[in-house]
Amino acid sequence: MSNPIPAEARAAPRVSPLYDPRIRAAAYQILLLLAVGLAAWAAVGNAAENLRNARVASGFGFLGNTAGFDVNQTLIPFAAANSTYGTAFLVGLTNTLMVAVIGIVLATLLGFTVGVARLSPNWIVARLAGVYVETLRNIPLLLQLLFWYVAVLASLPAARDSYAFGSSVFLNQRGLYVPRPMLAADAWAIPAAFGLGLAAALAFAARARREQARSGRRLPVWSVGIGLVAGLPLAAWGVLALSGAAPLSFEVPVKGTFNLRGGMQLYPEFVALVLGLTVYTAAFIAEVVRSGIQAVSRGQSEAARALGLKPGPTLRLVVIPQAMRVIVPPLTSQYLNLTKNSSLAVAIGYPDLVQVFMGTVLNQTGQAVEVVAITMAVYLTISLLTAFVMNVYNRRVALVER
Amino acid sequence: MTAGPQTLPLSFVRRDAVPPAPAPALVSGPLAWLRANLFSSPGNAALTLIALAIVVLVAPPLLRFLVVDAVWSGQNRDACRPEVVGHPVGACWAFVADKINYFVYGSYPIEERWRPNVFFALMALGVGWLLWLDAPRRDLGAAYFFVAFPVASFVLLSGVPALGLAKVPTSLWGGMLVTLVVSLVGIVASLPLGILLALGRRSRLPIVRLFCVIFIEFWRGVPLITVLFMANVMLPLFLPGDVSVDRLVRPLVGIALFSAAYMAEVVRGGLQAIPRGQAEGAMSLGLSPWHRMRLVILPQALRIVIPGIVNSFISLFKDTSLVSIVGIFDFIRTIESARVDPAWAAPTVVMTGYAFAALFYFVFCFGMSRYALFVERRLASGQKR
Amino acid sequence: MRKTVAALALGLGASLLAGAAQAQATLTSIKQKGYIACGSNPGLAGFGVPDAQGRWAGLDVDFCRALSAAIFNDAGKVRFIPLSAKDRFTALQSGEVDILSRNTTWSMSRDTTLGLDFPAINFYDGQGFMVKKKLGVTSAKQLEGASVCTQQGTTTELNLADYFRANKLKYEVVAFASADETFKAYDSGRCDAFTTDASGLYAERLRASAPDDNIVLPEIISKEPLGPAVRQGDAQWSDVVRWTHYAMLNAEEAGITQGNADQMLKTSDNPDVKRILGTEGKYGADLGLTGDWAYRIIKLVGNYGEVFEKNVGQGSPLKIQRGLNALWSKGGLQYGPPIR
């Protein structure tokens, strides 16, 4: 055990510099730096020369030029006459973000439902969920989008023979038309009441939790909460309506020469994209949820049963909080995937960032390098930001551990 | 000592025995199974009914469309028009039958189509060799798949006049041929590159690590479609003016880099799963870092990540459909362009084309995912002692 | 690790080596490689469309064939590279194609900021609308509130916005990346109207599931001078392209056709004809071609009128009138400067 180390072995061995690990490490890194630097230099040099030869304009000045084309679905005001390419970029970006957010919410709901259903003791429910996951995961998203857009929506009736639901909701090839809520001037009171109700409900829930921890008594959190959140805005509405000012009116879509006019229109491109992204991503989220739940050891739910918890609360209070730790990291990457996949909008004509900016703007200006660089930078930023936020959340969830 | 069970006021402790319940009427047989699995509680029964309703709503129309009402033969659109044939028409398989050569080969010259056929056979051989875990000489198989096969395929498909194979420009390639070529190039290029990147990311040299992290995170942070646009538009700019890159090669470069980044993360997972003891053991045997990696760590790590590699190949295979957006005539694109043929303008042609494409992708991807599952189980059972 | 470095070094070496090569004149490089890389429309009947065997046909396609005839004395030394509206300019700028011959509109910004040159106009066109007959629309002015399908990245998209703004009409634009998608969306009912160049309207109408249910509205809302485009800065190649078109025009004007070219070559005393066919003067050599360059074009491809009628005119399903594309002597705009 206590073999003395010979003195000559303890002294630093004499090696030729060629085999010295430190020198080698430095040499490798310098070589890599040189190689990368040279490659970058060659690429940039070539690009500059090629652009000069091609006499293509360069720089980011084009963002201030008038666009001259129209976009059909915009969240921010956009008009061909006076909006710039920069505004077109923002239109694309906001459309991308809107699709991503709506898609993430819907895909999460559907994905958790299917994931839990897959583990259901009910044989047929579990099988159905299994078929859903296996089918949709294994068919390319692009094909699914084309299916929804070209095959499903195109089989809807023409604008003149719309399906009507009641007298104010219409469905046809041009999309889904619903009444547009028009708020009166003092209607701000309603959202304000809603916010107040939400805050009060949250405060009550916190109090209830303290109360339960102290005395074991449970307060009716849900009924009070719903009463506050729904009741306050309704009360505000009632007061406004009584005072004579109709706080909320609806602009109902009516048939015009070609399309329905007025109301709120959900375009078929948007519907197809959200549907496709949701249904596809939900299949992956379901798998994430399933493996997360399965990662919670059986003993946990058995112990909960032994304590007398019903299956619902067992899932809600014991299994899911523990499963979340396993679920969150892959769930994050599914959210990112959905956001990135929303760029497939270009295949079905939804004006997202790639379609508007990398498509139309790139073509009208010809400034490929700038446009591609901006677009990639945007997605990279979204990815890194999401990853960062999710990491923070992840750390908080992980801290609960033991 | 003094406190016996009688004195403690535990009201929730039951003192008398539960009366015996009658024996269950059925514990085995189909009825018992039904009751246990489908109707164990009112809520469960409701779920069962909802699920059944979904099945009834979806399955019969699907079956009717795909099989019962389908048209199996015909020369043109008249075969698939309900007003001509006089009964409701489901899938128009006659359309697929008529266009199948286009779907498989694109516009590849008819007299040269034996070449893609040989390519398909060579590919089946290589894939089979690699995926069959007990196959003889799998090292040779890897060499075949990653070196000999790509070279042979290139010679075969694009043609070398000196060998008597006429040149076939890539603009004529199309259909499943292109889809398979793109996915194969993706996997053949991305696996070695991915391993290098994964090793680099775990390297102790800060600059190497930084470079690999940036590379990996960049490609993983952007959508593939922007990568393809970039490859299409910017790659020619970065090269000297008179070097022009083939239209098919550009997306290939993009896909290779993109999937290499994902592959690197898969391989890194495998490397991290190898216990430190393995490296230390190898070190104590006096192996050099290079030998340590090649003989001890990588063989074990790669074995663990076979399912991961197959899974990322599945997503790569699905993602190849995006090349259709940048104007490459892959399988999806041939379907898209066949469906606008006026000679086949019938109501269900579009659906039929998509159903056929879905079937094609599903068979490949589902098969591969089952394979990944099988390997995973087998590895897991190998780990048990 | 060593491998990473080696691979990088290799890649770098290759790119440096390639960088040392000199860029050269387009005509020289075409002669060297033995074919013309011609960017064509991926599928527009009458202008550039491949059949199932990959054989191309169309007015723009025949223009590339004429170039090939003039350079190689063989109309077949062309490689057609189908380019969508989105890809076309980058393909030309990057040198992937030698010429863009795919109904591209000549506009000032394209000429000045995209680094392009438009040597000639081989089809005078204008943008129009197609609608379904059953809508009962007879004029574009009645399109208030309509949905219009168009292809993105085209001048069409811009003209559309201008037209509706100028006429104070509301509309909804639905833009797609490719011509196929755009027309299919219109055909399946996504839009009330489909807009593109009038020639394109007639060509696409043939692909509709029921062509006779669609009508083209009378309004032409823009000028669309369509022609081949080349990279800026290569005057010689620009000249070859320009004079190929003019040779075809002059041939039509002088009455030289594919059928009678040989006979004209032998018998004609008309100095104009002799100069075109190269029996007088050495105009071809000054262009970097042979003396019989125009004769080859006419013999192997035909004069402008023949090519027009065969692809888009009365000899084709499109049946487009000559109209603006008649020779100047017949009331049109096609005017070939003299070869002398």
Automatic annotation (TrEMBL), chain B:
<feature type="transmembrane region" description="Helical">
    <location>
        <begin position="114"/>
        <end position="132"/>
    </location>
</feature>
<feature type="transmembrane region" description="Helical">
    <location>
        <begin position="210"/>
        <end position="231"/>
    </location>
</feature>
<feature type="transmembrane region" description="Helical">
    <location>
        <begin position="45"/>
        <end position="67"/>
    </location>
</feature>
<dbReference type="InterPro" id="IPR010065">
    <property type="entry name" value="AA_ABC_transptr_permease_3TM"/>
</dbReference>
<protein>
    <submittedName>
        <fullName>Inner membrane amino-acid ABC transporter permease protein YhdY</fullName>
    </submittedName>
</protein>
<dbReference type="Pfam" id="PF00528">
    <property type="entry name" value="BPD_transp_1"/>
</dbReference>
<dbReference type="InterPro" id="IPR000515">
    <property type="entry name" value="MetI-like"/>
</dbReference>
<comment type="similarity">
    <text>Belongs to the binding-protein-dependent transport system permease family. HisMQ subfamily.</text>
</comment>
<keyword id="KW-0472">Membrane</keyword>
<feature type="domain" description="ABC transmembrane type-1">
    <location>
        <begin position="176"/>
        <end position="362"/>
    </location>
</feature>
<keyword id="KW-1133">Transmembrane helix</keyword>
<dbReference type="InterPro" id="IPR035906">
    <property type="entry name" value="MetI-like_sf"/>
</dbReference>
<dbReference type="InterPro" id="IPR043429">
    <property type="entry name" value="ArtM/GltK/GlnP/TcyL/YhdX-like"/>
</dbReference>
<keyword id="KW-0812">Transmembrane</keyword>
<feature type="transmembrane region" description="Helical">
    <location>
        <begin position="172"/>
        <end position="198"/>
    </location>
</feature>
<feature type="transmembrane region" description="Helical">
    <location>
        <begin position="251"/>
        <end position="274"/>
    </location>
</feature>
<feature type="transmembrane region" description="Helical">
    <location>
        <begin position="144"/>
        <end position="166"/>
    </location>
</feature>
<keyword id="KW-1003">Cell membrane</keyword>
<feature type="transmembrane region" description="Helical">
    <location>
        <begin position="354"/>
        <end position="375"/>
    </location>
</feature>
<feature type="transmembrane region" description="Helical">
    <location>
        <begin position="295"/>
        <end position="314"/>
    </location>
</feature>
<keyword id="KW-0813">Transport</keyword>
TrEMBL record, chain C:
<dbReference type="InterPro" id="IPR051455">
    <property type="entry name" value="Bact_solute-bind_prot3"/>
</dbReference>
<keyword id="KW-0813">Transport</keyword>
<dbReference type="InterPro" id="IPR001638">
    <property type="entry name" value="Solute-binding_3/MltF_N"/>
</dbReference>
<feature type="domain" description="Solute-binding protein family 3/N-terminal">
    <location>
        <begin position="35"/>
        <end position="264"/>
    </location>
</feature>
<comment type="similarity">
    <text>Belongs to the bacterial solute-binding protein 3 family.</text>
</comment>
<dbReference type="Pfam" id="PF00497">
    <property type="entry name" value="SBP_bac_3"/>
</dbReference>
<feature type="signal peptide">
    <location>
        <begin position="1"/>
        <end position="23"/>
    </location>
</feature>
<protein>
    <submittedName>
        <fullName>Amino-acid ABC transporter-binding protein YhdW</fullName>
    </submittedName>
</protein>
<keyword id="KW-0732">Signal</keyword>
